[in-house]
């Protein structure tokens, strides 16, 4: 891949900004919707949970979680994606969108029942630090759900599984999921031990 193509892809999808970010956000809202919604289904929300969403981008999964949980906070480092998420969730008073990353969520200890992340594990600059942070903000017994494009995941499914275990999570399960449209997702579910 040329340097220009890498730059354009990063501005559109990895760290969305400017016109490329706006176009990337619109595309992701369609192309990643199935994975975003599937991960929310996997969380089996009952209306009582407090949920943290990492890197919601245009906010499709964030909205789905907001419709099914008591309170949802999203942390997203891209300003245009924060704006897009806010617009998509404008009618949901239980949803808040904040500046933050997986490594530095800015959230209190043991504040959430569920943490969801779709299509951003591969962007975390320090996966061990990010997993330690997500472990910190989950309540004991809380659920971590990660899903991302398998072909872009450094270390693959096995590496992700090992990293989640090494961060202190229990009952770690990792599998591949194929949406009707789009690329195979590597998915992991794990529990913060009580
Ligand atoms: C490929 S997009 C995926 C967006 C959305 N979850 C989806 O699947 O359509 C990646 C998103 O993760 C965000 N992101 C980048 N680095 C991040 C980090 N270290 N922690 C959390 N989010 C990050 C980006 O700003 C972008 O919105």
Report on the architecture of this protein.
The chain has 194 residues and is an alpha/beta fold. The protein has one domain (33-191): Rossmann fold. It is 39% helix and 25% strand. It is built from seven helices and seven strands. The protein has helices at 3-14, 18-31, 33-42, 60-66, 79-88, 127-137, 156-166, and strands at 50-54, 71-75, 95-98, 112-118, 138-149, 170-177, 185-191. It has a seven-stranded mixed β-sheet with strand order 3-2-1-4-5-7-6, with helices on both faces. Helix 1 crosses helix 2 and helix 3 (33-42) runs parallel beside helix 4 (60-66). 43% of the residues are buried. S-adenosylmethionine binds next to loops.
Name of the CATH architecture:
3-Layer(aba) Sandwich
Query: What's the CATH C level?
Result: Alpha Beta
Order of helices and strands: HHHEHEHEEHEHEE
Oligomer: single chain
Radius of gyration from the alpha-carbon trace, in angstroms: 15 Å
**Number of β-strand runs:** 7
Bound molecules: S-adenosylmethionine
Q: Could you please say which CATH topology applies here?
A: Rossmann fold
Summarize model confidence as the mean pLDDT. 96
Estimate what percentage of residues fall within beta strands: 15-25%
Helix content: 25-40%
Q: How many separate helices?
A: 7
What class, by secondary structure content?
alpha/beta
**Sequence stretches where pLDDT stays below 50 over 5 or more residues:** none
Number of domain modules:
1
Q: In this structure, how is the largest beta sheet organized?
A: 7 strands, mixed
Order of strands across the main sheet? 3-2-1-4-5-7-6
How far apart, in Å, are the first and last alpha carbons? 45 Å
Shape summary: globular
**Name given to the CATH homologous superfamily:** Vaccinia Virus protein VP39
């Amino acid at each position: 891949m040329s340097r220009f193509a890498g730059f354009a892809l990063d501005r559109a999808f990895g760290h969305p900004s400017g016109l490329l970010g706006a176009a990337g956000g619109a595309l992701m809202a369609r192309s990643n919707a199935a994975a975003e919604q599937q991960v929310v289904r996997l969380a089996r929300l009952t209306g009582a949970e407090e949920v943290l969403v990492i890197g919601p981008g245009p906010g499709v999964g964030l909205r789905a979680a907001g419709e099914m949980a008591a309170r949802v906070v999203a942390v997203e480092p891209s300003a245009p994606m924060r704006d897009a998420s806010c617009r998509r969730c404008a009618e949901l008073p239980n949803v808040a969108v904040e500046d933050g990353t997986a490594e530095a969520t800015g959230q209190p200890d043991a504040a959430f029942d569920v943490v969801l992340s779709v299509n951003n594990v591969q962007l975390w600059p320090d996966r061990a630090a990010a997993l330690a942070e997500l472990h910190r903000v989950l309540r004991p017994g809380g659920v971590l759900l990660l899903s991302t494009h398998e072909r872009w995941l450094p270390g693959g499914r096995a590496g992700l599984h090992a990293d989640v275990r090494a961060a202190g999570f229990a009952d770690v399960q990792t599998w591949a999921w194929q949406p009707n449209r789009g690329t195979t997702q590597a998915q992991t579910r794990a529990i913060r031990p009580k």
